[in-house]
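Hey L., structure's done. Input below.
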Amino acid sequence: MLDRLVKLDGLNAPHLTIADGIAAQAFDISAYKIAADELVTGSGARILFHAMAVGAVMTERPATSQGVIDAVLIESKSGRQAVRGRFFIDASGDGDLAAWAGVPWEKAPPIDGMMYPSLMFRINGVDVNRAGPAPWRTVERLMDEAERAGTHTFPRKKPIVRPQRNPLEWRANLTQLRREDGGAIDGTDVDELTRGELIGRQQALDAFAFIRDRTPGFEDSYIVDIAPQIGIRETRRIVGPYQLTEDDVLGCADFDDTIGVNGWPVEAHVAGTVEFRWQRDPRGYNQLPFRILLPGNVGNLYVAGRCASMTHGAQSAARVTGPCFVMGEAAGTAARMALSAGLPGDAIDVQELQRRLQDQGAYLGRTAPEPIR
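Output:
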């Protein structure tokens, strides 16, 4: 994926972020869409856009055996259809298919529990020279000063305003979407999603107006794009044979069934701010165990991404793009192994899975990582 973005001139070099504590990469959004299309269609996979999964059909099973999904029901402009398959991967973020299939799951309460969503937007027309070397720090300082002076109130502290691939364009991540009672918007409730999108656009406008009017280099800038939907950080998390914990993340835990690593700290979006908790080990990453993809009671299903088997604290770290890529690649590779061997998903040879992942270039965290260049 990164190689394709480089060929499209759509990838920035790694940069430090989050109080200069971790490296991240920015990419051109349009290039990313094209690269993703090419990567998936080039594999021979069929993509079906404009369709919403709405339910699952299970096969009959004895009470003592694992369940088996026969089909996923979808709705689209073509009507209601069923997508049948021998193996399924739930990468919905909300654990939709897992929930329909009867997999145990949990969800933090909206108040003092579930992480708050955001609606991101992009700013264009920034005067790079006038903005200076680190205008993101200027934005944060100006927002803090305005709140202390009582002239403004912002949805959350610790805004993230950073340049995209083209430094004329900046991404802004500084909204926080709440219900009327102050709790987090629940991404599994359509009315709350609608409310979140409406108030998110208003928050984006208010925040942009402040940045434009107060920040050097942003005087002639404008909102070029508001995200097409709100960014949900947490809803359902399955409860599998093992739940990754916050202590695993902070303690940089190792696992015999590692499928890759997570290097992001705990990033908890709580009421009015963002709390960061950093790894205690200077190594800076934890391994991700294969077991967190396993639903336990459904034999032809893996669950990958932010809805995998993790506690609330661990999910606050392992929900971001890097570990989600790790889980997705492992789930796809393992599903092929299960199909080829005619086995349920939890019966594959994990050492063989690890060998295949390494052959594909995956980093399992067993050796020192290469330095960032």
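The first helix runs from residue 2 to 7. The first strand starts at residue 15 and ends at 17.

-- N.
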